[in-house]
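Case study 2.
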Amino acid sequence: MAIDARVSKKAAAMTVIAAAAVSLTSIPAAAHDSTARQPATAEAGAGVQAAAAPGVPRLPGGLSALSWMVADADTGSVLAAKSPHRKLPPASTLKTLFAVTVLPKFSAGTVRRVSSADLAGMGTGSSVVGVREGRRYTVADLWRGVFLRSGNDAVHVLAAMNGGWRNTAEEMQETARKLGARDTTVKSPDGYDAPGQVSSAYDLTVFARAGLVNDDFARYCATPRAAFPGSGGTTMIENTNRMLVGSHGLSRYPGIIGVKNGYTSKAGNTLIAAARRNGRTLLVTVLNPQSNASNAVYKEAGSLLDWGFNTAGKAQPVGTLHALRTILDGSALRPVAAQAGAAEARGGSPRRSALVLGAGGAGVAAMGLGALFGHRRQARGRGGRGRRGGPEGGTA
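Prediction:
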């Protein structure tokens, strides 16, 4: 069936260019090559940037990840980071970019009857939610499969609706470019290991921050459990993010609001986590901890979130994300206070929050998500899929 990609009239009406010579990718080269603006603390270690200032807590010990970042989601300030632009396989955290690119296009209530072509080309060992050929699923069902179970089968169906696997990868690459995420190369939209596919702690943090502006993204990524169509009716699925659910020996992190975890044999464990306390939202991205400790990616993310919340009013930023602002109400960007519940299943188009993307002070572009990502009203067909390698799991 033909599926129309819808762009809200409100977002389209908000599409303006506020200044000439705007560069959507122009973090200054110096800032991109090194996030630091202040000397690193003595205890930080190689590649770590954290401002040294009186009263600032020491960074937590035992951090083994190859790369990580702590950022304030509201202001875009980077509070500390280790090798934030190191290019690494992202695993299923790349699904945040997939969602930022595709989620605004289709109404939550749109129904898709799954064909064999929709599921063709899925990699061996892929994490799945249990999408079956011949069954009908709403778009909301599929997104719950993506966010909760890291279902590559759900990603494949949504990508088929979006014009095919290759087309979706190309659109994701363009979205990354427009967000200024220059460390990311997309080969496989589901995050499955593929030659040349990489991202960075910086870029993944940018994707999560952009996604959290969208009500539906925020709600899906914050949902611990949900109903999903099964062979004998509906079944309950649980989010694979142990930090969100509180499972496998972990307690639910206080204030957690998402975002996405992942694992592949090449990427190791990866995680983007967002939490909100006392009116302050922090984002932490952790890539490939080298520790053999159980739940290392979650424990390291938790310790970095704790550190970030303890630095309130003390730490000077060592860098900045792109200045991302909502202009729907003229206020600074505030990630949606995610509320999982029955309202999640309501139909209708997702909200397209209007954004302002800063370019290192050189200019400002104000535009809706739909306009930013070039969404057009069109019928979508199915495209080809490439073969990929390396087992994928929603969590280790």
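The mean pLDDT is 78.
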